[in-house]
Amino acid sequence: MQTKLTELLNIKHPIIKAPMFLVSNVTMVTEAMKGGIAGCIPALNYRTLDELRVALKALKANKVEGGSFGFNLIVNKSNLKYKGQLEVICEEGCDFIITSLGSPEETIKQAHKAGIKVFCDVTDLHFAKKVELLGADAAIAVNSEAGGHRGNLSPQELTHLLNINLTIPVISAGGVGCKADIDKMLSYGAEGVSVGSPFIASIEAGVTDEYKQACVDYGAKDIVMTQRISGTPCTVINTPYIQKIGTKESWIESVLNKNRKLKKWVKMIRFSIGMKDTENAAKKATYKTVWVAGPSIEHTKAILPVKDIIDKLVN
Asked: Residue 91, Cβ neighbours under 10 Å: how many?
């Protein structure tokens, strides 16, 4: 199927394997490229810039015709590694960058100099218009069915709203777990889809078997929003641990977040604590089961290789 996304990235199918914190890795993206789609990894999955550079070199070596690879950058002040990550990515090169949680202005400027396309996560028309004016190559419409940090508008509403007001392609993110979902998103006017949660339960995913199995055992009804991970509402599986700690910010965070000078620091501390809990749960056995996922795990029935998950999405 040919769309503006397949043309932009020279891929066979209009699908991006979404960047997922701790989950995405070089092996997953390599298999995604072999399957004729694009794959993306969060730069934050690498502790050092040297490790990020090694991953870039490996993906360039693994590049195949009909596939594409990119990296996700958190572009706000909470990511203290941002400038270094951008520099390394532009030096080594990749097909695209996805920006999240902040202004993509500097990323677009530097990436375009290096011949790298930039797609920007957006949740509303206001920010979508801003990134278009800054020169984004596409808008990733993060809707109310996405996993992780999601938007407030339904896939149909957000895609339609952006389509009639933007000239750049719109890629729908959220609510895709099978081929019928992709067909539905394209019928709304999307030029492609970003798919994350179905790939958590892949053999190649860099997380524990317990996390993968949870995506098989739990379903859409088990996904809840929590403010206790990054300071921004985030979707997680409603494990007994999540039920125990609750999903609302603490009273002291609530008070401090009302102070303009302290708000940034409170969010940075919450982000640091929440990411550590998430990392521990993803990488080793722990009672603190903080597993990020979206409602599209409803369609996940077994732990499969990435290539089989792609086959289910396109056939």
From this structure: 10
CB 39 within 8 A of CB 11: no
Task: Judge contact between 41 and 74, C-beta under 8 A.
Answer: no
Confidence (pLDDT) at 259:
60
Instruction: Divide the 315 residues of the chain into consecutive groups of 10 and give the mean pLDDT of each group.
Output: 94 96 94 97 94 97 96 87 95 96 94 97 96 97 87 93 96 94 96 96 93 93 78 80 67 50 55 58 53 91 96 94
* Phi-psi region at 148: left, alpha or beta (left = phi > 0; alpha = psi -120 to 50): left
- Separation between Cα atoms, residue 268 and residue 121, nearest integer Å: 20
Q: Which residues contact residue 291 at a Cβ distance below 8 angstroms, ignoring those fewer than 6 apart?
A: 211, 214, 215, 236, 237, 239, 281, 282
What sign for the dihedral angle of Cα 41, 43, 46, 50?
A: positive
If DSSP codes are grouped into helix, strand and coil, which group holds residue 225?
strand
Angle at 142 between CA 60 and CA 257, to 5 degrees: 110
Alpha carbons 264 and 190: distance in angstroms, whole number: 34
Q: What is the pLDDT of residue 77?
A: 77
Tokens at residue 158, please?
Answer: 């957000």
> What is the four-CA torsion angle of 179, 180, 182, 183, rounded to 10 degrees?
120
- The pair of three-digit structure tokens given for residue 143, joined into one six-digit string: 């809707």
Q: Strand pairing partners for 122?
A: 141
